[in-house]
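Sequence and fold
=================
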Amino acid sequence: MLDLNFNYPSLPGQGDRLREGLRQLANVGDIESHLRYQPHAGRLGDRDIIAHHLSAQGLATRAENVLIVNGAQHGLAVSVMGLLRPGDVVAVDALTYPGFKALAALYQLELLAIPVGDEGPDLDVLARLCQIRHVRAVYTMPTLHNPLGWVLSSRQRRRLASIARQYDLLVIEDAAYAYLATRAPSPVASYAPERTVYVSGFSKDVATGIRVGMVVCPNAWRPALERAIRATTWNTLR
């Protein structure tokens, strides 16, 4: 039987490389800082490193807009807890990431299905849903969708950003697999940075068991997201 429930890095010798990398980290930097509580969003120097990493992947951002979390799933939970309320309506692809469905059920969100085709969601239907329902947010995986694998075009991303502005939607952009697409268009967060939370992590490309992720958000939303981090984990071990 092939178990497709989970995926994780599995290159030959990867364990040895991880061991060596962790050894190097332990021998440099301010290791004693881990004896104390850290800022909820993470140390600014660490956030600056992640900001530079994201810029190389096509998302220009600043350290001040990066929050460090315990993996991308925690980033999604923090986004929901900080920015949505039970009963809010969230539009999702008709076939979407089960982890977000579980989170929505736990937080009592109402999910509206957007029909999907071979190249992505039907954004005309999303616009019509927003006309007849008070849709609060849209959850999207524009680059290497899980499980359908599509990569939305620049035109689709611009259209999604336009709909979000027209109907005042919060965009939750899940980029857990975006690192695998070397020629993908810019993230949706680049088209609508004022209303998008960009969520990703290092579980898929570094180590599944080391839970480090990031949330990139507008300045206005940072306090609410920091409160959610404080309530759920205080800070991430780095």
About this structure: Helices lie at 14-27, 44-56, 71-83, 98-107, 123-132, 154-166, 188-191, 222-232.
